[in-house]
Design a protein that fits this description.
alpha/beta; twelve-stranded mixed β-sheet; eight-stranded mixed β-sheet; 59 helices
Length: about 1950
C-alpha cells in the first residue's frame, strides 16, 4: 500500500487533533470513533480515487488481489457484462457457440494448437471445480519469473475454433465467464495445461503472474511440523465441515473462543460459518471454501503434512483456487485413508480434540524464516497464547507449537465486515466503500483498550462496532442516494479522509498508551514474523505480565497491512482456548485429566491450604470424636417430625399436591394450536383433510433423559387424555402409557417404526407427532458431531424428517420448545404462519387470563439485579471467582472446568464442616456457599414434618459430576448428616437413586402406600432437603419441584455461550410464583414498560416479585444503576458478620456460641428477644437486609414482613436467626421448640418465591449488561451453536420486538450450518421448503411446576380439544321431530301387512285408503287437509313459530356420521377422490356443455335445457355419431339386475348450497355405480361447476332464475318423461318393449345425509309379537330393495319416513302406508305423465303434487321401515329468497301484510316473484280472506286443484276438477270458503255448484291478470252465489313488468 495522500498533513496540529480525538473516544461510551480524520488534511487537491477509499494505492495487482481474496460483493468496481448475442449459448463451461470447454470433458480430445500458442486453464467463478481450456499466445503469458508478459491478450477458442480474440474482455464473454468484476487475464488464467503419459490433458503448473511468484510452486514431498490446514476446494460445505461448535462456538463468544485452530475434528464453527456473507453473489458453499480454516493437533496424533517448505508471500490472501488449497495441505489423518478429506469431503472429526493444540491456522503464508515458538512457553507464561490472524500474510510457526493456539476467527470477522450487504448494493458498489482494513484494526485496538481485566473480547461486539462505524461514515451518502438516482460513474462521495497504513501503527500506539499496558502494540517493518518473534521474546522475559493483548502490525508502503492479535492475558487466553473445544472434546479432555491423575496436584494443593492438616483427616477426627453425640442431635429434629406426625401434635400442612387442572394459559395455547390446525385444513392446498379423520393418536418424543421420560409419562397418566381420546380402556397400565412416549435413544427406531406402521394402517386416524424439547439434537443425520459416541445423535433428523413422516397425509408434527431459535432459520421447515407463541398475560395493564400464578423468568431475574430491589436473585461469587483465577494461573495445563469443580466441592465441603461446628473451616469457603449450605441443613428443622429445600448444583461434565457426588457424599457421611439431607446424582441416562430413609419420608408426605414406590421424577422430590447434582451437557427438559431454593450454576461452561445454552441453563430456575403473595409493585423500568410479549421480557410477565428499596427512589426520575452487592462478599461488613456468625456456637451442634455479638447488625436484631414475634421478625429482617447490601437504600419500616423474610434469605446468620427462623439466637430448649411450632415451613416459603441463581462472573456480566436500547446482551448472542449469522451487516435486534418479530428476524438473518438438520432444506421457491403439516409451539421455560402450567399441559389439552373437534366434524345435526297430527284418525287402525313384510303386496296395498293428513313435522305450520268430517280437537293450532324462525327453532339431534353418509364439498378422503374428479385420467373441470330441447304444450314454447357432462360421465348418455349432439340419457331395463348398479337416476335440485349441499353420494351408494344429476339455476352454474367438477349438471333456463323448487321439480319430471320416450324409441329399434324401460327417477333434497332401515324380529310366540331395531344402511341397499319391489312399476310415488328418535311402534307396525311422501322420493314418470308439478310454487309443492297424484287414482307408497335423516343446513335453500323493496337497496324489514296491495295504488313495490309474495301472504294473513275459517276445522276452505298453505289455524279440503278423479265425499261438509287458484278449463260452474257453503263464507279467486280475473268470474257464474265489491280486488306488490298476481274476494250470499 502506498502513502499517496490526498493532501499534505498539517503537521503543526496533527498530533493535537489526533490525540484529542482518541482521548475523547476512549472516554466516551461509544465504541465507534467519530470520523474526525478529515481535520488532519488540507483541501484535497487530488481526490482519492474510489479505489483508494480503503486506503489502497492505485495499484493494479494489489487491487486485483483484493478482489480475488474478498467476496464478489466487496469488489470496489462494479462491472456490467456485455449482454450475450441473442440465441447464443450461455451455459457455464461452454462457449457461446455451444462447445464444451471443460477440461474434464475434452481432456482426451485432440486440440489443434497454433504455433506460439499454449493451452491454459481458466477459472470461472460459477464453476469452481472446473478449468476451462483456452489457447493463448505465449507472448502474453509471463515467464518463470513472472515477468516479460506483453500487455494485452491474444487467444483462440478451442471449442468452436474461433480465433483472433484481441481483448480478454471479449474472450471472457465468449467463453461465458459471466464476471461481475473487470475481466483480467491475471485473475482468471490460472494453470498451464500439459499432456500426461497417457496423452490426456491435465492441469500443470500455476501461471506465475507478477506478484504471485510464490503462490503455488509447492510439491508434496517434505514434512513440516506446522499443522496448517486449508479446507480442500473440492470438499464443499456439505461434506467437509462436520464440526459442531460447543454451546459457545459462535461469533458471539469471546473473540477466539471458536475452535478455529484447535482441532481437526472441530473445524471452527465461527470462522467457517458464523459470519459468512450470503448476499446472493456467493453461495455459502463457495464462501466457505474461501474462508480460511485451520486445525491443529499434537504431532503424535497428526498425520503427514505434505509441502515443500513455507509457501512464499503474496498480497492479501490465499485464493481458494490456488493449488495450495487443494494439493499442498492434504492432511492425512489416517494412513489407511490418505485422501479422505481431499477427495470424498467426508467428516473432519476424526481426531480427539483433547489432543489438539497448535499454530498456524492461517492459510495466508509468508516469506522468510518460520517463527519458532519457544520451549517451555506454557510453563513460563502459565497460559497458551491465542493468536488471532488479522489482515494479510501470516508466517509459519515451528518449534513448540503445542503451546500456542492460532485462530482465523478475527480474519473472518474482518473479511465479512468488508462485504457490503445486499441492502446497500443499490447505492453502487463503488460508491459506498466497505470499512477499510486500517480502520478495522484501529477500531479493534480501541475495543481492546476498553475491556476490563476480567472481560473477554466478543466477536459480536466487534461486528457491531464495525457496522456502526461504517454506517456513521456513510450516513450522508446513504441519505443522498436514497433521494437521488446514483450516477453511472460516481465521484468519490466520502469527505472523510481515511487512515493510511503509515499512520496506523502510530495511531494504534497512541490509543494503547492510556490502557496501563493492557494492550501492547508491536510494529514490524518487514513481516509479522519479526513481531511474533519479538512478542515471544517479551513473553519469555516476563515483560508482558500486565499485558492482555498484543497487536502486531506490519504496514508497508508497497503492500497492504499484515496484522495479528495475540491474547496473552492468562484469563482471556484460557477462556478463549477452552471455548474452542467441542462438547465431546471438552468431556474427553476433562476425563483425560481425571483418569491420568493430573488433578492430584490440585488435591495436594488444597491439603496445604488448611493449617490444621488435610481436610480428610479433620473429617475423620471429627467423625470419631462426635460419632454418638452428633448423630442423635442431628436427627433429633428429623425424627421428631415423624413422632409428632404419629401423635398429631404438629404436622406441616403446607405440603399440597395440586390436582391436574387446565390453566387459562394452557387453554388459550391449546385453542391457538387448534386454530392453526384448522387454518391448514381450510387452505386450498388440501394438505390436511380433517373431515376424513375419525380419531386422534399421538406419540411424544422426548430427549434421552430418563427423568424427562418418566416425567412425561407422569403427566400423560394424570391428564386422562388416553381415556378421553378412547385410545385406552379404564384400567391403564404403565406399559400401555409407555407406548405413547418415545425416548430418542438407541431403542427409539423400533417404537417409531410401530408408529409409522400404525399411521399407514389407519388412514382415518390423525397422528400427532409431538417433538418436546425440540431444540435438543438438531444434528443432521448426515453430519454427526460425535461419530464415535452415542447413536442417538441425529435421531431427530433421521426419524422426524424421514420421507414417511413428510409424506403421510395423516401425520401432523408439533415441535415444542422454549428456545425455538434454531428452528427459525432461512431454511426452516416450519412456516412462520405455523408458529404459536405463548400468550402474554397482560395487555395494556389488563390481566387477560386471570391466572393466580405469575411467571418469573429471565427478564425478571435480570430486573432483580437493578438497584432498588430488595434482593438480587442473580448473583456471582467473587471470592470463588478469585480463587479459580488464582488456581488457573498456578495450574495452566488443567482445564478450568476441573479447577472450578474442585474449588466448589472444596467450598461445599468446608461449608458443611463449618455448619457442623468446625469453625476454623469458615475461612475456606465463600459467603454464598455458606448461605446455601446452612439454609439447606437447617431447612428441615424449620418444619414439623421435616420438609426442606432443594439445591441444584449444575455440573455439565458427567465425570466431574461423579467426582463431586462422591466427595460430597463422603463429607456428608463423615459429618453424620446422612439423615439430614440427601445428595442425588442426576445423570440424564439413569433414573433417580435416593436413600431408603428419604423414600419413606416422601411416601408419608405424598400419602403413597405402594411398597415398591420410588421417585422417578424430580417433581416427586418436592420437600426433600437435598443437593441435586445436575449433570449432562444440556438440560433435557427435566422439571424441578417448588422446593427448589438455590440454583448453583457456577460451574456451567462460561467460555462458550450461545443464547439457547444460556437461556436453558437459567430456565432451570424459571418459576411460577403465586400472585396471591402480597408484594409491593416495583417501579416498572423501561424494560418492563414494553409490551409483555417483547424481546426484553420474553417471559411475558410484568409482575416483579421484589420490593422497592425506598419511597424516595420511587419518585426519582433518575435511571437506576445496577447494585454492586450482587456479589454478597463485596461488602466486607457482610462477609465478616456472616462468616463470624456462621460458625458461632450458640446453638450446638451446628453453631458455636459467643461470636454473634461481633456483628452490630446481628446484635441489633437480637436485643429484644421475647415480647413480640412480629417485631422480632421485622428486626431480624432489617438486619439481614442491611447486611446484604450497604449500597442499597435502607428498607422502610412499612415493608410487609413477609417480604422481609424473603429479603433476609441472603443473610448468613446463626442457625436460629437464619432467614427461615423467627426467633433470636438463644440455645434454650424452650426457644427451640417455639421455633418448631411457630416458624413457617421453609419449603412453603421457597415455593412462594423464585430461586436464587449463582452464575460465573463472565456469564453474569453478559446476562446483566444491556445495549444502548436496553436490550439484554444475551439476546443478541448467536441463537444456537449449529446456526450462523447470514451476514455481519444485519440490523441490531430491538428491545421492542415481539416473539413473532423475533422469529422473522432469525428467519432472515440466520442460516443453518451443514451439521444442522435443516441445512439441505433449500429451494429457489421459498414456499416449497415449508412443510405444510408442521407446527412450532414456543413458550418460556417453565421448569418448576411445569405439570401445572407449562407447555406439556397445553399440548395435551390441545390433543383433547382436537379430538373433540374431530368428533364434532364426524357428527351432524339432523332434524329429530315427532310426526305431527298423529292424533287425527281418519279411520280405526287396521293392519294390512304383517310387521315383517319386506315388500308391499299390490292388491293389498290398493285397499289401503289414502291418508290426506300431513305428518311431516316441517309442515307443522301448514294448513290441515280434511278428507271428511274429522274429529279434530279445537285446540289452538296457532302459529307456534314464524316461518323464518323454523330453521333455528326446529329440534335437532347430533348424530355421528356413518360410513354410508352423504357429504358436502369439505370431505376429501382418498376413496372418493376419483368420484370427486381428482382422477389423473381426467383433467379437472374437463367437461362439455350440451343443449337439450323439448317442447311442452303447457308452457306454449320449447324448453331448452343445458347439460354439463364431465368426460368421466359421458357413458351415461347417448350422442349422435356425426355431430356428438346429446340425444338421450341411457335408461336400464326393468328386468336388469346388477348388485353394483342403481337403476334410477337421481336428481337433486339445489340453490345457494354449492359448498354445503350433500352431493357426494359415493359413500352413501357404497361405491355402486349410479347416475346423479345436480339441477342448478343458470346464474349458479359456474360456482357449482367449480366445487363439483365431476358431477353432471342440469342447468335450468334463465327464465327460472327467480323460480322456486316447483319449477325444478316440474322440469325434472318433464325432462325425464321426454327422455323415457326417447329411450323407448331408441331401444325399441333394438327389439326391447317400451314397457320394459325403467320408468323411475329419484328426486332427492340436497340435505339428505343418512338413511336407516328397521329390522323387525317376528319370532315371538304370538303372531302380533315383534321387536325392531333401527340401523344405518347405505342408500344403495335401500334403493336396490325398493327397485326390487314386486310390480314396482304399478306405483306412481315411493317414499320413506322422516327419521325420528321418537319413532313409535305404531309407525313400524304397518310396514307400508299410503300417504304423503317428502324429501326423498322415487317417481314413476310413466304413470304420472299427466300429473305435473306446479312450476310456480315455492312452498308445499310436494304436498300439492301428492294430492294431484292421489286424485289421479295413482298409488303412493311409503316404506315405513326405511327412514331418511335430513341435515340442518343453515344456508341456501328457500331462504336464499330475500324479499326487499324494489325502490331502495337498503335492507328494510317488510312485513307479510305489505306483500299485497290494491291495484293502481302507490304502494311500494317489492323485488320478489309474485308467486312467492302470494304464498307468504296467505301463510300469515289468509284469515283476512277467510274470516269464518279461522280455527273452524269442521268447516274447511274448499281448495280446487291446488293446495296452498293458509296457515295452521285454517283447514283446507282439496278437490280435483279432473274427470274421473278420486275426491272425498263432500256430501256432509259445509265449507267456510272457496279458493280458486289459476283454475283451468276443467273447472266449470256446474262443478262448483256441488259444494255447500256457510252463509258469509268468503271466496278468493286468483288469476294472472285483471282481465282473466273478470273472465273467470263470468265463466264460472260466480256472481250468482257470491257478492263482489270493487274494493275487494287486490294484487301482489309487484311492478307491472314483474307480472303481479291479481285476486278478487267475495262473500257467499
Amino acid at each position: 500500500m502506498g502513502n499517496s495522500y490526498a493532501g499534505q498533513l498539517k503537521t503543526t496540529r496533527f498530533e493535537e487533533v489526533l490525540h484529542n480525538s482518541i482521548e475523547a473516544s476512549l472516554r466516551s461510551n461509544n465504541l465507534v470513533p467519530r470520523p474526525i480524520f478529515s481535520q488532519l488534511y488540507l483541501e484535497a487537491e487530488q481526490q482519492l480515487s474510489s479505489l483508494e477509499a480503503g486506503s489502497r494505492a492505485d495499484n493494479e495487482e494489489e487491487e486485483e488481489e483484493e478482489e480475488e481474496e474478498g467476496s464478489e460483493s466487496s469488489s470496489p468496481v462494479s462491472y456490467q457484462m456485455k449482454p450475450p448475442p441473442e440465441g447464443c449459448c450461455t451455459t457455464d463451461g461452454f462457449c457461446q457457440a455451444g462447445k464444451d470447454l471443460r477440461l474434464v470433458s475434452i481432456s482426451n480430445e485432440h486440440i489443434e494448437v497454433p504455433s506460439g500458442f499454449l493451452l491454459v486453464g481458466a477459472k470461472s467463478p460459477n464453476l469452481p471445480d472446473h478449468l476451462l481450456v483456452c489457447a493463448v499466445d505465449k507472448r502474453f503469458l509471463p515467464d518463470d519469473n513472472g515477468r516479460n508478459a506483453l500487455l494485452g491478450f491474444s487467444g483462440n477458442c478451442v471449442g468452436c475454433g474461433k480465433k483472433g480474440f484481441c481483448y480478454f474482455t471479449e474472450f471472457s464473454n465468449h467463453i461465458n465467464l459471466k464476471l461481475t468484476t473487470q475481466p483480467k487475464k491475471q485473475k482468471h488464467l490460472k494453470y498451464y495445461l500439459v499432456r500426461n503419459a497417457q496423452g490426456a490433458l491435465t492441469k500443470g503448473s500455476v501461471i506465475c503472474w507478477k506478484g504471485a511468484e510464490f503462490r503455488g510452486r509447492q510439491s508434496s514431498s517434505s514434512t513440516c511440523s506446522s499443522t496448517l490446514f486449508q479446507l480442500p476446494e473440492s470438499s464443499g460445505l456439505s461434506g467437509s465441515i462436520s464440526s459442531e461448535p460447543l454451546p459457545a462456538a459462535n461469533p458471539n463468544t469471546p473473540a477466539g473462543t471458536q475452535q478455529t485452530a484447535a482441532g481437526i475434528d472441530h473445524i471452527p464453527s465461527t470462522a467457517a460459518f458464523s459470519s459468512t456473507v450470503y448476499n446472493g453473489k456467493e453461495s455459502p458453499k463457495q464462501q466457505l471454501v474461501k474462508n480460511n480454516l485451520s486445525a491443529l493437533t499434537r504431532p503424535s496424533v497428526l498425520g503427514t503434512l505434505t509441502n515443500s517448505g513455507p509457501p512464499k508471500k503474496r498480497h492479501k490472501g490465499w485464493s481458494p483456487e490456488s493449488p495450495s488449497s487443494t494439493e499442498t495441505w492434504n492432511l492425512q489423518l489416517n494412513p489407511q485413508v490418505p485422501n479422505r478429506i481431499k477427495n470424498d469431503g467426508g467428516s473432519l472429526s476424526s481426531l480427539p480434540h483433547s489432543a489438539l493444540v497448535g499454530p498456524a491456522s492461517s492459510p495466508m503464508v509468508g516469506s522468510g524464516e518460520p517463527v519458532s515458538v519457544p520451549d517451555n512457553l506454557l510453563k513460563i507464561c502459565k497460559a497458551k497464547p491465542v493468536i488471532f490472524k488479522g489482515h494479510g500474510n501470516f508466517p509459519y510457526l515451528c518449534g513448540n507449537i503445542n503451546d500456542v493456539i492460532v485462530s482465523p476467527l478475527l480474519y473472518t470477522c474482518y473479511r465479512n465486515s468488508q462485504s457490503l450487504s445486499r441492502a446497500y448494493e443499490q447505492y453502487g458498489a463503488s460508491t459506498i466503500q466497505p470499512i477499510s482494513e486500517e480502520m478495522q484494526l484501529l477500531l479493534t485496538v480501541y475495543y481492546l483498550v476498553q475491556l476490563a481485566s476480567d472481560q473477554v473480547p466478543l466477536i459480536e461486539d466487534l461486528e457491531q462496532i464495525f457496522m456502526r462505524s461504517w454506517r456513521e461514515s456513510h450516513l450522508s451518502e446513504i441519505r443522498q442516494y436514497q433521494q437521488a438516482i446514483p450516477q453511472t460513474f460516481p465521484q468519490v462521495p466520502s469527505q472523510i479522509a481515511p487512515v493510511t497504513s503509515a499512520q496506523l501503527p502510530w495511531l494504534a500506539g497512541l490509543a494503547a498508551s492510556s490502557c496501563n499496558d493492557s494492550v501492547h502494540i508491536i510494529e514490524c517493518s518487514y513481516s509479522l514474523a519479526e513481531g511474533l518473534s519479538e512478542m515471544f521474546k517479551l513473553l519469555i522475559e516476563g515483560k508482558l505480565i500486565k499485558t492482555n493483548y498484543v497487536v502486531i502490525i506490519c504496514a508497508s508502503r508497497n503492500r497492504g497491512i499484515d496484522s495479528c492479535i495475540v491474547i496473552t492475558g492468562k484469563y482471556q487466553a484460557r477462556v478463549l482456548s477452552e471455548g474452542m473445544l467441542t462438547p465431546s472434546d471438552y468431556q474427553k479432555e476433562v476425563n483425560y485429566q481425571l483418569v491420568t491423575g493430573k488433578v492430584e496436584t490440585l488435591g495436594s494443593f488444597f491439603s496445604t491450604l488448611c493449617p490444621e492438616g488435610d481436610i480428610d483427616l479433620l473429617l475423620e477426627k471429627f467423625y470419631q470424636e462426635n460419632q454418638g453425640h452428633i448423630s442423635s442431635s442431628l436427627s433429633a429434629s428429623v425424627n421428631k417430625s415423624t413422632a409428632m406426625n404419629g401423635t398429631g401434635a404438629a404436622v406441616c400442612t403446607s405440603y399440597e399436591i395440586e390436582r391436574h387442572q387446565i390453566r387459562p394459559f394452557q387453554l388459550a395455547v391449546a385453542q391457538k394450536l387448534l386454530s392453526h390446525i384448522c387454518s391448514i385444513a381450510d387452505s386450498s392446498t388440501q394438505n390436511l383433510d380433517l373431515g376424513s379423520f375419525e380419531k386422534i393418536d399421538f406419540l411424544i418424543c422426548v430427549p434421552p433423559s430418563e427423568v424427562t421420560y418418566q416425567q412425561t409419562l407422569f403427566h400423560l397418566w394424570h391428564s386422562g387424555i388416553l381415556l378421553e381420546l378412547g385410545l385406552e380402556k379404564e384400567h391403564l397400565t404403565k406399559q400401555r402409557v409407555e407406548q405413547y412416549v418415545m425416548k430418542l435413544d438407541a431403542d427409539a427406531q423400533i417404537k417409531f417404526k410401530v408408529f409409522l406402521q400404525n399411521s399407514m394402517q389407519n388412514p382415518h386416524t390423525l397422528f400427532v407427532l409431538i417433538h418436546d424439547h425440540a431444540h435438543w439434537d438438531l444434528m443432521s443425520a448426515m453430519h454427526s458431531l460425535y461419530p464415535q459416541t452415542e447413536l442417538s445423535t441425529g435421531l431427530v433428523d433421521r426419524l422426524l424428517n424421514c420421507r414417511e413422516v413428510k409424506e403421510a397425509p395423516n401425520i401432523v408434527t408439533l415441535h415444542v420448545t422454549s428456545f425455538p431459535y434454531a428452528l427459525q432459520t432461512q431454511h426452516t421447515h416450519i412456516s412462520p404462519y405455523n408458529e404459536i407463541h405463548w400468550p402474554s398475560s397482560y395487555s395494556n395493564g389488563v390481566d387477560l387470563y386471570h391466572e393466580n400464578k405469575k411467571y418469573f423468568g429471565l427478564s425478571e431475574f435480570i430486573e432483580s439485579t437493578l438497584s432498588g430491589h430488595s434482593i438480587p436473585l442473580l448473583r456471582y461469587d467473587s471470592s470463588f471467582e478469585a480463587m479459580v483465577m488464582a488456581l488457573g494461573k498456578r495450574f495452566p495445563r488443567l482445564h478450568s472446568a476441573v479447577i472450578r469443580t474442585f474449588v466448589l466441592i472444596q467450598h461445599y465441603s468446608a461449608a458443611m464442616m463449618a455448619v457442623c461446628g468446625l469453625s476454623q473451616m469458615k475461612n475456606y469457603t465463600s459467603v454464598e456457599t455458606l448461605e446455601i449450605t446452612q439454609n439447606l441443613i437447617n431447612s428441615s428443622r424449620q418444619c414439623p414434618s421435616g420438609h426442606g429445600l432443594m439445591v441444584v448444583l449444575r455440573i455439565p461434565c458427567t465425570p466431574l459430576a461423579a467426582v463431586a457426588y462422591e466427595r460430597l457424599y463422603n463429607v456428608r457421611e463423615r459429618l453424620a448428616l446422612e439423615d439430614n439431607f440427601e445428595i442425588i446424582l442426576g445423570n440424564p441416562n439413569s433414573g433417580i437413586t435416593i436413600g431408603k430413609h428419604f423414600v419413606e419420608q416422601l411416601k408419608v408426605w405424598q400419602k403413597i402406600e405402594d411398597v415398591d414406590w420410588k421417585p422417578r421424577t424430580y417433581l416427586e422430590l418436592e420437600g426433600l432437603p437435598c443437593i441435586l447434582i445436575f449433570s449432562g451437557m444440556d438440560p433435557q427438559g427435566e422439571s424441578l419441584p417448588r422446593s427448589l431454593r438455590y440454583c448453583d450454576l457456577r460451574l456451567i461452561n462460561s467460555s462458550s455461550l450461545v443464547r439457547t445454552t444460556l437461556e436453558q441453563e437459567l430456565g432451570l430456575a424459571a418459576y411460577f410464583v403465586s400472585s396471591e403473595v402480597h408484594t409491593e409493585k416495583a417501579v416498572v423500568n423501561d424494560v418492563l414498560e414494553s409490551d409483555p410479549e417483547k424481546l426484553s421480557s420474553t417471559d411475558n410477565e410484568d409482575e416483579e416479585i421484589a420490593t422497592e428499596g425506598s419511597a424516595s427512589e420511587k419518585r426519582s426520575p433518575m435511571k437506576r444503576e445496577r447494585s454492586h452487592s450482587h456479589d454478597s462478599a463485596s461488602s466486607s461488613l457482610s462477609s465478616k458478620a456472616s462468616i463470624t456468625a456462621f460458625c458461632s456456637e450458640s446453638s450446638p451442634p451446628f453453631v458455636t456460641a459467643g461470636d454473634t455479638a461481633k456483628s452490630p447488625h446481628l446484635s441489633n436484631s437480637t436485643e429484644e428477644n421475647t415480647n413480640s414475634h412480629e417485631r422480632q421478625k421485622q428486626k431480624v429482617d432489617k438486619g439481614a437486609q442491611t447486611t446484604v447490601s450497604k449500597h442499597l437504600p435502607p428498607v422502610t419500616e412499612q415493608l410487609d414482613t413477609k417480604q422481609n423474610i424473603r429479603s433476609a434469605q441472603i443473610s448468613i446468620t446463626s442457625s436460629s436467626s437464619s432467614p427461615f427462623s423467627s426467633s433470636s439466637s438463644s440455645s434454650a430448649p424452650t426457644q427451640n421448640s417455639f421455633i418448631l411450632q411457630t416458624s413457617q415451613c421453609s419449603m412453603t416459603k421457597a415455593s412462594k418465591q423464585p430461586p436464587i441463581v449463582f452464575l460465573p462472573k463472565l456469564v453474569y456480566d453478559i446476562i446483566t449488561s444491556t445495549d444502548s436500547s436496553g436490550l439484554p446482551k444475551s439476546s443478541s448472542l448467536l441463537p444456537y451453536h449449529s446456526v450462523m449469522w447470514a451476514s455481519s451487516f444485519r440490523p441490531l435486534m430491538s428491545k421492542m420486538m415481539t416473539c413473532t418479530e423475533q422469529s422473522l428476524y432469525y428467519r432472515q438473518w440466520t442460516v443453518p450450518k451443514p451439521i444442522h438438520m435443516d441445512y439441505n432444506n433449500r429451494n429457489e421457491g421459498r414456499m416449497d421448503t415449508f412443510h405444510p403439516r408442521r407446527l412450532l409451539l414456543s413458550g418460556p421455560p417453565q421448569v418448576c411446576n411445569k405439570s401445572k402450567i407449562g407447555k406439556t399441559g397445553a399440548y395435551l389439552q390441545f390433543l383433547s380439544i382436537l379430538s373433540r373437534m374431530l368428533i364434532r366434524l364426524t357428527e351432524v345435526d339432523v332434524y329429530d321431530e315427532e310426526e305431527i297430527n298423529i292424533n287425527i284418525k281418519e279411520e280405526p287402525d287396521q293392519c294390512y301387512h304383517q310387521p315383517g313384510d319386506t315388500w308391499p303386496d299390490l292388491e293389498t296395498f290398493k285397499k289401503i285408503p289414502f291418508n290426506y293428513t300431513i305428518h311431516d313435522p316441517k309442515y307443522e305450520d301448514a294448513s290441515l287437509i280434511c278428507s271428511k268430517l274429522q274429529t279434530i280437537n279445537s285446540e289452538d293450532r296457532s302459529m307456534s313459530r314464524r316461518q323464518e324462525d323454523m330453521y333455528t327453532r326446529r329440534q335437532t339431534t347430533r348424530m355421528r356420521l356413518s360410513k354410508y353418509a352423504a357429504y358436502n364439498t369439505y370431505h376429501h378422503c382418498e376413496q372418493c377422490h376419483q368420484y370427486m374428479g381428482f382422477n389423473p385420467r381426467y383433467q379437472l373441470y374437463e367437461s362439455t356443455l350440451h343443449a337439450f330441447a323439448f317442447s311442452y304444450s303447457m308452457l306454449g314454447e320449447e324448453i331448452q335445457l343445458h347439460f354439463i357432462i364431465p368426460k368421466s360421465k359421458e357413458h351415461h348418455f347417448v350422442f349422435s355419431q356425426p355431430g356428438r349432439q346429446l340425444e338421450s340419457m341411457r335408461l336400464p331395463l326393468v328386468t336388469d339386475k346388477n348388485e353394483d348398479y342403481i337403476k334410477s337416476p337421481t336428481f337433486t335440485p339445489t340453490t345457494g348450497r354449492h359448498e354445503h349441499g350433500l352431493f357426494n353420494l359415493y359413500h352413501a351408494m357404497d361405491g355402486a355405480s349410479h347416475l346423479h344429476v345436480l339441477v342448478v339455476k343458470e346464474y349458479e352454474m359456474a360456482i357449482y361447476k367449480k366445487y363439483w367438477p365431476n358431477h353432471i349438471m342440469l342447468v335450468l333456463p334463465s327464465i327460472f332464475n327467480s323460480a322456486g323448487v316447483g319449477a325444478a321439480h316440474f322440469l325434472i319430471k318433464e325432462l325425464s318423461y321426454h327422455n323415457l320416450e326417447l329411450e323407448r324409441n331408441r331401444q325399441e329399434e333394438l327389439g326391447i318393449k317400451p314397457q320394459d324401460i325403467w320408468p323411475f327417477i329419484v328426486i332427492s333434497d340436497d340435505s339428505c345425509v343418512m338413511w336407516n332401515a328397521v329390522e323387525v324380529d317376528c319370532s315371538g310366540d304370538r303372531k302380533s309379537d315383534y321387536t325392531w331395531t333401527e340401523r344405518n344402511v347405505s342408500l344403495k341397499q335401500i334403493l336396490q330393495h325398493i327397485e326390487a319391489t314386486p310390480n314396482v312399476t304399478h306405483y306412481a310415488l315411493i317414499g320413506m319416513r322422516k327419521w325420528s328418535s321418537k319413532a313409535n311402534s305404531t309407525e313400524i307396525k304397518e310396514p307400508f302406508s299410503c300417504c304423503h311422501v317428502h324429501d326423498f322420493i322415487m317417481l314413476n314418470v310413466d304413470l304420472t305423465q299427466n300429473v305435473q308439478y306446479n312450476q310456480n310454487r315455492f312452498m308445499c309443492d310436494d304436498v300439492d303434487f301428492n294430492l294431484r297424484v292421489h286424485s289421479a287414482g295413482l298409488l303412493i307408497c311409503r316404506f315405513n321401515h326405511f327412514s331418511v335423516m335430513k341435515k340442518q343446513i343453515a344456508v341456501g335453500g328457500q331462504r336464499s329468497f330475500h324479499i326487499k323493496s324494489k325502490v331502495s337497496d337498503t335492507p328494510v324489514s317488510i312485513s307479510p301484510a305489505q306483500y299485497i296491495c290494491a291495484p293502481d295504488s302507490k304502494h311500494t313495490f317489492l323485488a320478489a316473484p309474485a308467486q312467492l309474495l302470494l304464498e307468504k301472504y296467505l301463510q300469515y294473513h289468509s284469515h283476512r280472506f277467510f274470516p269464518l275459517s279461522l280455527k273452524n276445522y269442521s268447516h274447511p276452505v274448499l281448495s280446487v286443484d291446488c293446495y296452498l298453505n293458509l296457515g295452521p289455524q285454517i283447514a283446507v279440503c282439496y278437490v280435483s276438477s279432473r274427470p274421473h278423479s278420486l275426491n272425498i265425499s263432500s256430501s256432509g261438509l259445509t265449507f267456510s270458503g272457496l279458493l280458486l287458484y289459476l283454475c283451468d278449463s276443467f273447472v266449470v260452474a256446474s262443478f262448483l255448484k256441488k259444494f255447500h257453503f256457510l252463509k258469509g263464507a268468503t271466496l278468493c279467486v286468483i288469476c294472472q291478470d285483471r282481465n282473466s280475473l273478470r273472465q273467470t268470474v263470468v265463466r264460472l257464474e260466480l256472481e250468482d252465489e257470491w257478492q263482489f265489491r270493487l274494493r275487494d280486488e287486490f294484487q301482489t306488490a309487484n311492478a307491472k313488468e314483474d307480472r303481479p298476481l291479481f285476486f278478487l274476494t267475495g262473500r257467499h250470499i
